[in-house]
Amino acid sequence: MKTNFLNLQLNSPLVLASGILGLTASSMKRVVDNSCGAVTTKSFNLEARKGHPNPSIVPFEHGLLNAVGLSNPGAEEAIKEIERFKQVSDAPVFASIFGRTIDEYGKVAEIAVKAKPHLIEVNVSCPNVRSEFGTPFGDVPEDTAAITRLVKQVAGDIPVSIKLGPHGPGIARMAKVCEENGADAITAINTVGPGMLIDINVQKPVLSNKTGGVSGPAILPIAVKSVYEVYKNVSIPIIGTGGVTHWQDAVQMILAGASLVSLGTAVYYEGIDVFNKINMGIQTYLEKFGYESIEDFRGGAH
Known about the structure:
By secondary structure, the protein is of the alpha/beta class.
């Protein structure tokens, strides 16, 4: 199950996605102790952000509706947790950053590199703050190109992955823009939407923000298709994320072209042991087909 990714050695191809259990060093270590290969911090920006008031997360039959609103303690506090995590674990840690403006991405990246994360994941595609910040930067090729160049310049030797959504002018095209402007990897996808659920008794939207990003099993087919399209269009590796709950889902992502598979909402459904379960399932798949590693079937659906 050992996996090489951008010169990093992971004990598993599974990664903790940004947003769940990525706020403190202790919670990230718990994930690694349960056979996760790498962890991603909760997305942070320059200054502390409260996010949206409750209710901000609502489960439904096929996933979660999330309008947390990118709450975080700010970059200076976030890197303290990265530094603490590195003291207690050898697993790679990815710093997830976002900004309100293009210039802010560069400023946040400057702070992030102080903690020397193993990768900087750049969130340009979060849909649940669309009404606050305007059109996501990840929907505009010129903005995405500028952010990629800026963060890559600041990051230096630290790899940069751009987190894209399935919206806008097309994720394959946007991935190519990222590659052409220096990105080392692509993370695909972010939550989908925004979406809405209505309380039929109160007769009002359930979320205080009214709309939020959709995650969980409902978006798996969109995520698999997105990874498949990105894999055809770029030569840089992909972190596949979105709707992965069971080992069969992770295998689909790898067959579509993912180098790593990221899990978030699955922790809500299956608990922290989900990483162990999926690892065992992938191992069984390897043995069934006589593969020595996931490299042997990555992109096999093509």
